[in-house]
Structure formats: C-alpha cells, structure tokens
Amino acid sequence: MDFVNFLDNCGRRLTHLRFRDCDSVDNSVLLKISEICKNLKELDLNGCIRINDKGFSYLERLNALEHLNFCNLYIKAQRVCKILQKNQWMRELYLEDLYIFELMKLADSNRRNLDVVAIELKNSCRDLEVISLRCSKFTSQGIDALADCKNLRKLYLPLYPIDEDSLSRLLSSCQRLEVVYLAYITLTDRILKLLTGCQNLEELHLFHVKRATYKNLSIIMEQCPKLQKFHLIWCDVSRNNYKINEWKKEYSHVSVYVFDSI
C-alpha cells in the first residue's frame, strides 16, 4: 500500500522503475503503474513471478518504454508482442530465462513461440540496440528476424546451437556490434571473418565454442582494434596457460578471461 501511495504522489514524474525478485510486485502494482506512470522509459521486472497474464496486459497501456527486463518470468509470447507493438521506441530488451508458459511442455513449440517475439521486434522495434536471449530458445527463423534490427550494439545469443547461415546473416547485418555473446557454435573461417569485420567490437564472450584454436583467437585480437574483453568459457584453448600468458603480453590492451572446469 505504501508503494501504491508513492506512485499516486510521484508516479507521473517517474521514468525508471527497477524491481528484482520483488514478492510485493503483483497485478495491482502493474495496474497502478499503467494508470499513472505514462512517462516511464525503463521497467525491470526480473523475477517478479507474482505477475500473471492479466497483470502484463496492463503494460499495453504504456507507450514510452525503451528498456524492458522480462528475465525469469512466465508470460505469453503474444502478450510480449502486444507490449512491443505499443512501445516501438524499445532500445533494450532482456529475455533471459523467459518461460512461455502456455507451451512449456512442448520444447519445439516454445522455440517457435519465441521466434514470434523476434519477428515482432523486426516489425515494431527496428531501433533495438540491446537484446539478451541467454537461456532462451530460438530457431533460425527468429535469428534471421533479428538480423533486420541493424542498430544492435549488444547481442547476447541463446545457450543453444545456432545455424551457421543464420548467424552469418546476423553478424553481417549488424555492423554496430560492441558486445557479442556466442555459445555452442563452430568458429569456421566464415564466422571468423564476420567477427573480425565487427570493427566496433569491445567485448566477445565465447561459450563452448568449437575450433577455438590459438590461431583463430589471435586473429580476432589482432583484427578487432577496439576489443577490450575476451572471455573463453569451456573452450579447449583455455587449458594452455603458457599461451594465455603470451596473449596477455602481446595483446595487453585486451583483458583475457578463461574458464575450464577440467
């Protein structure tokens, strides 16, 4: 009740609201936000699991959102799409561990449903700059749709294998990329060439990547002039500490982090 009173008194001037794992945030709170916070640009609902579909529907009344965090939530894909349709100035969207609850028991259908969200981003939010999909699932159709969001600066792709053709189209289309997170891909000559073509790249995170040879990784550090952080997680290359130390000397401008449980 105190928070609702706060919204009544101050909500019209609020532009940013961040909740994280808040048990007190439920449908009634979102209703009040939708009625009062018409200037809201950022809304972080990460882990606010007391909200259901009715509560999320209230967000369709807002039209100024630019930053939305839906991580760790249960929500219908079509509801996400309707919210995006109303908020076409969206710049940052976080969908990590997003559960499309009406199809949770059907993994393939779940992926297709998330593809619908990517297609909506293509149609409604082409100025999108940041997208985080880690732990979510998409097919090549969804990845292809994201390729039309050409202003992407930060790209966190799912922790699942991605079709090389779709990844190639995505990397070649998004020339402003500064941060890239890739998992379960093969570092082919084709992908390597596209990564080194990302001349604004500042951070590269590789997770369970095949063909991550010393030669290929050295090429990335040589040809990406703005690279500052290079993270290798569960890549075989991380087992050779001597080579890692050589990298740190030769590419002192790059902070190299390696992790291997073996």
UniProtKB/TrEMBL annotation:
Q: What residue stretches are annotated with the F-box/LRR-repeat protein 15/At3g58940/PEG3-like LRR domain?
A: 88-184
Recorded source organism is Temnothorax curvispinosus
What GO biological process terms are annotated to this protein in UniProt? SCF-dependent proteasomal ubiquitin-dependent protein catabolic process
Protein's UniProt name: F-box/LRR-repeat protein 4-like
What are the GO cellular component annotations?
SCF ubiquitin ligase complex
What the entry lists under PANTHER family is as follows: PARTNER OF PAIRED, ISOFORM B-RELATED
What highest taxon heads this organism's lineage? Eukaryota
Positions in coiled-coil regions: none
Q: Which InterPro entries match?
A: Leu-rich_rpt, Leu-rich_rpt_Cys-con_subtyp, LRR_dom_sf, LRR_FXL15/At3g58940/PEG3-like
